[in-house]
Design goal:
The complex is a heterodimer of chains A (407) and B (86). With 407 residues, chain A is of the alpha/beta class. Chain A is built from 9 helices and 19 strands. Chain A starts with 20 loop residues before the first strand and ends in a 34-residue tail after the last helix. Chain B contains 1 helix and 6 strands, in the order βββαβββ. Classes of the chains: A alpha/beta (407), B mainly beta (86).
């Protein structure tokens, strides 16, 4: 085990002076786009430029939850396709992504929340996604550990039950996609930082990196929480994004007690049991923008209080690991995917907030199509940047609590 | 991530007493000749600085003042404004 091994995605490659496409950010969106560019669009001369190492950012810090029960008709089909792709990718990549479609239970704590859930369920069912409204007793039957008594801070009124969602092993997706992309000829350059993006005549001409200059006429910025800063610093384009640290943690391993991903908007808390037995839990976002990715005593206390209220069997259980990542929030809680505007050959895929993991498979597929043809696929059209100046913000904020710096 | 902010009236206080009020974007653009693009720029667009930036804060659980201060977003500490902005 301790021997020196070459990574799954092959030996370190020489950085060429020119590529057909350069992707900034070796996270899941970058890797998935590179994979589909090579596999479905025949564009194999692609470089992924990663400042540190692949999967270090949001790709390896999210809590691996996947689901397709969002609020708006523009978002749901995208997440549905992403959900449908996990078993397909597991086969295609010949890599076990450990997709466990255990189902999601979103707890509702008031009649108003039940009404909002009813709207979400209607949207899901319209798009052929399985989602049901259940009452507190049915929720208790699904999740026996649940406390449905009246004497907790936010008594449970019912829940939205979404059986096709669940958990995917996020590191396996990173490794599987890296392996799949490298096999088709994509170059993955780790420890390589993009320092400038060059333009000429309103078009992309190249990328400056710490290992030399690359000529290219297509660049995708998919650097997660760092995307907005990169685009502003290198191209002077400001985006409607706020970057916040979001925290998560796992408890010590326990015998099986939770068969679903259970979440609560009112408690700002979700919990699921990993295959190792740990209860993975999180959801708290810092109330002001920062890039620290640090944990806080404030949040550990909040998490313990919330869990011991609605999952009282966890009282006294110890937290074993804590960590933080970045969420780049937009005002309408929907991402920005755009291309060739205002710079020809510049593509951006950012503003995912805490939805980047659950969307990566489908987004990679369609961003690849966008980058190869220059034409925006219909499914991505609603996510263009100009919607903000046209006052066409999406209604995703209606789905849940509003996590923005304004809270 | 303990944050301490200096309120102009109450002095140094725990960051959780305050509400973040956004990046400082200068004065509100004049109504006359205002385009949707310029308005969007003022309302929505951010610099997302990883480093020291000027920003608005509201002392929500205190005296109720609105004030601007400089903060290092990579360390969550109040900071001196950069030389160029002094």
């Amino acid at each position: 085990m301790l021997g020196k091994r070459k990574p799954l995605w092959g030996k370190k490659k020489r950085l060429k002076s020119s590529y057909d496409a350069v992707i900034i950010g070796g996270g899941l969106h970058g890797l998935a786009t590179a994979y589909y560019l090579a596999k479905e669009q025949g564009l194999t001369d692609v470089a992924i430029i990663e400042k540190r190492y692949i999967g270090l950012g949001g790709a390896g810090r999210n809590t691996a939850i996947v689901r397709a029960n969002q609020r708006t008709q523009e978002n749901v089909p995208l997440y549905k396709e992403a959900l449908d792709l996990w078993p397909v990718l597991t086969k295609e990549l010949d890599f076990n992504l450990m997709f466990n479609n255990c189902g999601n239970v979103n707890l509702m704590h008031s009649e108003a929340a039940m009404k909002a859930a009813r709207m979400n369920v209607a949207t899901a069912q319209f798009h052929g996604v399985e989602s049901h409204l259940i009452d507190a007793k049915e929720a208790k039957a699904l999740v026996p550990a649940l406390n449905i008594s009246e004497d907790i801070t936010y008594p449970i009124h019912g829940a939205m039950y979404h059986p096709p969602g669940g958990i995917v092993r996020h590191d396996a997706v990173v490794w599987g996609l890296a392996k799949g992309a490298a096999k088709q000829g994509v170059h993955i350059h780790q420890q390589t930082e993009a320092t400038a993006i060059h333009t000429g005549g309103g078009r992309i001409t190249g990328v400056e990196t710490t290992r030399g200059r690359i000529s290219t006429n297509r660049v995708l910025v998919s650097a997660g929480g760092y995307s907005a800063g990169i685009i502003n610093r290198m191209l002077g384009l400001r985006l409607p994004i706020s970057v916040l640290t979001i925290q998560a943690m796992v408890t010590q391993p326990l015998k099986p007690i939770l068969d679903h991903v259970v979440s609560s908007g009112a408690y700002h808390c979700y919990a699921n049991q990993t295959l190792k037995g740990e209860i993975a839990t999180g959801a708290h976002m810092d109330p002001w923008p920062n890039y620290t990715t640090q944990n806080t005593a404030h949040y550990i206390k909040h998490q313990a209080e919330a869990l011991s209220d609605w999952l009282p069997c966890l009282r006294g259980v110890k937290f074993m690991r804590i960590w933080g990542g970045l969420a780049d929030m937009t005002p309408d809680m929907a991402p920005i995917m755009d291309g060739n505007d205002p710079v020809g050959g510049l593509y951006m895929d950012c503003g995912w907030g805490y939805f980047g993991f659950k969307s990566c498979s489908a987004v990679g597929k369609y961003m690849a199509q966008y980058m190869a043809t220059g034409n925006c696929p219909d499914i991505l059209k609603p996510f263009h940047l100009r919607r903000y100046e046209n006052h066409r913000l999406m209604g995703e904020t209606a789905a849940l609590v509003n996590y923005t710096p304004d809270n | 991530m303990a944050l301490t902010l200096t309120c102009p009236i109450c002095g140094k206080r725990n960051g959780y007493e305050f509400r973040f009020g956004g990046e400082d974007k200068g004065p509100r653009p004049p109504e006359e000749g205002l385009t949707p693009g310029a308005w969007c720029d003022y309302v929505h667009m951010n610099n997302c600085t990883a480093g020291v930036q000027k920003e608005w804060w509201f002392h929500r659980d205190g005296c109720g003042s609105w004030f601007t201060t400089w903060r290092d977003t990579t360390r969550n500490l109040e900071a001196e404004p950069p030389e160029a902005n002094k």
